[in-house]
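Weekly modeling sync, notes
Attendees: AB, CL, MP (scribe)

Item 1: holo prediction request
CL wants a bound-state model with cobalt (II) ion before deciding which constructs to order. AB pointed out that an apo prediction alone won't tell us much about the pocket. Agreed to run with the ligand included and paste results into these notes for async review.

Input as submitted:
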Amino acid sequence: MPCKSKAIAIIRHPDSRPTKLMNTDTHATAQALLDFIDASPSPWHAVAHCEAQLQAAGYSRLNEGERWKLVAAGGYYVVRGGASIIAFVLGSQNAAEAGLRIIGAHTDSPGLRVKPKPAEDAQGILRLGVEVYGGPILATFADRDLGLAGRVNVRGEDGFTPRLAHFDQALLRLPNLAIHMNREVNEAGLKFNKQTELPLLLGVSDKDSKADQRFRALLASKLDVSPDALLTWELCACDTQKGTFWGADQEFIANSQLDNLASCHAALSALLVTKAPAATCVCAFFDHEEVGSESAAGAGGSFLADIIQRLAANAGLDSEDQRRMLAHSFFISADMAHAWHPNFPSAYEPGHRVMVNGGPVIKSNANHRYSTGAETAARFMAICEKAGVPCQQYAHRTDLGCGSTIGPIVAARLGIASVDVGSPMWAMHSLRESAGVLDHSHMIAALTAAFST
Ligand code: CO
């Protein structure tokens, strides 16, 4: 959604209360993000939803197994592995001189993934075994109305066909143990043994059908196929609660997967309003960031490098001009940032508090857990200035381990100047995260400016 940055460029001092954070544009833009997340309960759904938006905007799908014939100023996208997608619009200038403008983000979120043979009769109760994917806050999965979403490979004429599946009504639950049996829960915190205490409850056992049959029948009827046709699946427990606005002025949003679908949505929105750019503009959204990015479709794999090489070949660049193109390129790794939480002051570096609704955050780390350098940070500051949005700088406490993301991986692999940025948020890796309404519009405005800088 285009952002009218002039109308929303309210820069506030961190200690002063904002007067008017909301207007119809920023509200509608945040609503579009909530809708995007609600329609994307798994990374496979997120990519399908991006694909639908790209198709609607006239982008064409390319197949990695075919030869490409790219048309000047054309918009294209490529999907790898079902949950990673790279979209680009070709620039009008010589690629060796103009370079590429690339925004990267990730489609996956930490959570619970259903095992290959999950169903079990636990002495009268049917339950599903799950594996922990990445680093979720496990306690946030307790007592929530969980659905199930992902991809199922169904037997077909050519072997199998991948199908998307989504149970959007409450289906599964991880009930807490009553406080009468867990007296220390408020002092010791809510803890789960990952093997024995995380299986999700699905129903009452039935003497006449085995647990496995019950689960397969459920999944098969959702896809309208026979249970025998189900081969394999990748399914995530998802939240059935829709995204919402909250706060005295409805200036905050809450939803699952804000990390990092908010960045995917911001980057895609920026790409879709970018028409006839000078430099080729690229959005690269990767699966598997939450588990280290080392996969064929992850940021550590060859996906982006392969697409860049084919772009260069299509532009007729020789090997030296390909290097010149990379030397003129800029990579923005967009992932969320940790906003100041007033209840936990000791968790933060006092000089680097970033505020929700305070604008895009530049993330720096001397040990290069983030790819940001002084030069690339300055470049992003100039982009924000051009877009008329404020920006903030974050550094993690020196005595706390710092997270990382795809920025350093892509920068090292491609040798492109790179910066790590993100919108500030609370409760990263909770099943219900929150962030600021205004920040989403600010991020779209900054990323849109980056595509033309
Ligand atoms: Co993330």
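Recorded for review: DSSP finds twelve helices and 20 strands in the chain.
Action items: CL to compare against the apo run; MP to circulate these notes.
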